[in-house]
Each structure stands twice: as C-alpha cells, then as structure tokens.
Amino acid sequence: MKNHTTYLSSPIQALNVALQQLSYTSAFSSKLNVLALYSSKILRQSICNFFSNLSVKPYTMKFKFLLLTLLVLGSTQSFARQCWNSKGYTVVDSINYDLSTAFDQNNNAVGQSKDITLNFNKPIQAICETASFPYGLTVRSYITNEPIVENTSTFKYLRINDYLLGAMKINDSAVNTFYPPIKKTMGYDPNSDNGNAFSIRDSDLLLRIKVVKPFVGNVSIPSKTMFTVYVTTSDTDPLRYPVYTISYSGRIVAPQSCTIDSGKVLDIQFGDILASEFNQAGAGNKPHSINPETRSVSVQCSNMNAAATLTFRIESEKSQGDMLVSNNDDVGFKISDMSDNILIPNNLLSFSEFKLNQSQQATLSFKAWPVSVTGKKPAVGPFSSRAYIRIDFP
C-alpha cells in the first residue's frame, strides 16, 4: 500500500506590510582461578623461605606478606586478554537479514510468526592476544541496545516496529543452540591462546518475526543492527572490539492492501494569514480568521472481508504533540476526524475507524487547520507541511 500524501500550506502576511538480559557464568572466570592456584603455590613457597629467616622483625614480616599478597592478586586481574576480528581491530563483519518476504493471510494476524533462516556461510574469524598460560576457551557476547519486550523460555523478543517483534536462535558447532542476547562460553580452540586466527562457527541463524498488530499493504523496515557480537577470553572482560553484527532490513508486503485516491497527492490551501494572528491565538490554537478545511478521499481495498472495519491515522516527518510542524517552526497544522477527535501524528493509538462496503470501498473524511506551535509571531512567508494517511487493522 502506498501511503497517501497530503500537503498543507499557506503564506503568512505581515500586518500593514507584506506580514539484556544478559546471562552470566560465575563471578570469576575459571582461567583466573587457575592462575590464582598457580600463584598461591609461589606465595606458599615464598612464605616458607621468608619464615626461615628468623632474624626479621614481626612487623616487617607482616608488611612483606601483605605486599606479596597484593602483587599476586594484581597479577590475576591483569590476565584478561582482548580479541578482535582477524581482518583488523577496526573491521566489523556484518550479517544482514532481508525481511522482504511475503506474508500470507494466515501470517498477518496477532501472535502469528514467520521464521527466516540464514546459513552462516561467510567465513568470520577472530584473534586474541597471546596467553601466558594455556586456556583455550572464549566467551561470545551478543549485545543489543533494544529492551527485551517479551521473553519466552527460549526466544527473547525485541521490537522491530509498531507491528512486528523479532527474536533469534543460533546454533554453534561446539555449544549447540542458544538464544541472544546472551554471553556464552564457547568450545575449546588452542588458537585462542597462541595468537592465531580461529573461526566463529555460528550456523543456522534463525530470525523469528512475530506479528503484534496486523498491517495493511507494506511495512518498510530501515536497516538496523539487532546484535553486536564481541569475543573475549572471560565474561568479565571489557567489550572493546566488535567482531561482527547481525542486522535486518527490507519491506514486508501483506496480501491485504488499500489504495487511497489512487496514490494522488491532496493539496490543501488556507490562503493569506496575518502573522500577528498566530501569536494572538497562542500555542496550539488556530488564527481566529481561519476555519477548518474538510476533505474526503476514496479508499479501495483488496483481499479484505466485505464490510471489514479498518482505521486510519496520521504520520508525518516532523511533529510536536498533536501538531504537524511546518517548515516554519512557529506554525503547524492539526488534523481531526469528522467527530473533531484530533489525530495525533505518529501515534499508533490515535486513529479513527471506518467500514468497507461490499465492494471493499470506503470514503474517508477529515478536517485540517493551521495553528501556532510556539505562541510566537512567525516569520513572514509561505509555510507548508506534509502528512501521510496510514490505514491499519483495528
């Protein structure tokens, strides 16, 4: 479906002039515990040698014992090593899901889901700093900036847009299946210790798309990173160098569609308005000399049930509260349905209902008028704004 575009404009005249749930393992990694045990042997031997020298005074003995303990503890904390993409510190590989997959009528319903599988055939490798003591294990962190909005026993859903949620399942050759976002200890690979490259063996990456609100026509999804993946040598290491990202983009087309006035642009003119009328009206109000303009558009839908109830709402590129903001920041427009209910731009919950006839047709009517956005006297000159009419299921 193509959103219908409405242009609203008017010149201003001057008065008398031209007016993560992230999952963690133990608080300390096993490799640090190994180093601590090794260091404790050195510590015990040093203490034994130290006690053999009986000429040392007790308070001196206590001071040296504390100093040695602090040095050993410091060495365990400095064991952390950094890892990065084998192509370079600043190189980040990317895996992208193309969501341009047609939904059938059964998919486009609340609670229905669609799985998209992506085979991991792109060779991605990482390198870690050389280890002083063999360990061979790494931790992979799948990090997102989005909150988890729904958590099942497996899938953790993130918001894609007003209509869709997304969640991932990943199968790794060493640790089998897991569900990001997560920090996961991976399988043994000696190259993670010796400074050589080792493979990231994620495979069968599955993205599950879940419908939380059915949609009409198509939904455009801009490219967005879902997870950023880091490789470290413990679950407490800082995340400095991303190795690869998982992202999605595309346009999902539903079989149900509607066309508004065959995709025409509707232009609404309000004539000349005195600049002083805007600041006299105050923020959010219309100039006293202006009356709302009423417009109607025809709607033709397909693959709908006869007499189906749909909704329409307003989308805009720039808005403030319940107003569309024009190219003059001091003035804008408001739009309402025929019952004078203001349609708040870009608000999924602000809509007006209408019903199709037996031919899957309807006529939409609405009102529009200019308002002051700031309550200030605007600069003299033409102003305009652009709005889109979006049709949805209730």
TrEMBL record:
Gene Ontology CC terms: pilus
Keyword Metal-binding recorded: no
InterPro entries hit by this protein: Adhesion_dom_fimbrial (IPR000259), Adhesion_dom_fimbrial_sf (IPR036937), Adhesion_dom_sf (IPR008966), Bact_Fimbrial_Adh_Pro (IPR050263)
Protein name as it appears in the record: Fimbrial-type adhesion domain-containing protein
Organism for this UniProt entry: Acinetobacter bereziniae LMG 1003 = CIP 70.12
Lineage top rank: taxon: Bacteria
Gene3D superfamilies: Fimbrial-type adhesion domain
BP term (GO), one: cell adhesion involved in single-species biofilm formation
